[in-house]
Amino acid sequence: MLSKLLYKEFKLALHPAAVLFLLLSSMMLIPNYPMYVLFFYNTLGIFFICLSGRENHDFAYSLSLPIRKRDAVRARIVFAVILQLAQCVLAVGFMFARRALGLGANEAGMDPNVAFFGLSFIMLAVFNYVFFTGYFSQPDKVGRVFARASIVTFVYIGIAEACTFAVPFFRDVLDTPDPENMGTKCIILAIGAVIYGLTSYVVYRISAKKFEALDM
Fold first, then answer.
1. For 125-174, what is each residue's pLDDT tens digit?
2. Distances (CA, A) of 10 to 4, 6, 13, 207, 215
3. What is the DSSP code string of 40-84?
4. Rounded CA gap, 107 and 86, in Å?
5. C-alpha distances out from residue 85 to 79, 80, 112, 137, 196, Å
6. Domain definitions of the chain by residue range
7. Which end of the chain is more exposed for a tag (fewer CB within 10 A), N or C?
């Protein structure tokens, strides 16, 4: 069932902007740029998917199929996770390209390294929680929900970048070129990945419960 619903998501729900934003992983090549922003564009692509779904009555179509409401929720969240992981994979490729080009340290914030991806996973987890739990309780208010999720996301970005300059652990251990302090950075990556995975499951459970309570 999930595979068929994901096929429907890719064929009918995928917005062209979401694909374009995947290519913005190339922002890794911009010298002295706040790298967390490239993942914000991914969240913007997810917003466009949900917004166009509202305009095209996507849920009305999905619920006309022989599926449960929670199946539609699971498909949309798994679809978003796939897009986010694809962004990460592309960003890793551009991170290595950045090193090959010898672009050096990022003076504007966190260096693109192993720890950066762990912290980015946490950022995406925060966005997913705020956005999807709000979206599936008010699908017609997707713009308002995205605005709220964006504010929380940029607060996270601001705090994370501030820590890069002000907190010794971030400045001297995490914000260093690989392979320096690789053990600690791998721990941060693992923690971020676990938080992202657990949050995705929690988001699905809460969102499914809220969506099932809606009178569509």
1. 999 999 999 999 999 999 999 999 999 999 999 999 999 999 999 999 99
2. 10, 6, 6, 21, 26
3. HHHHHHHHHHHHHHHHTTHHHHHTTSS--HHHHHHHHHHHHHHHH
4. 26
5. 10, 9, 16, 25, 11
6. 2-212
7. C
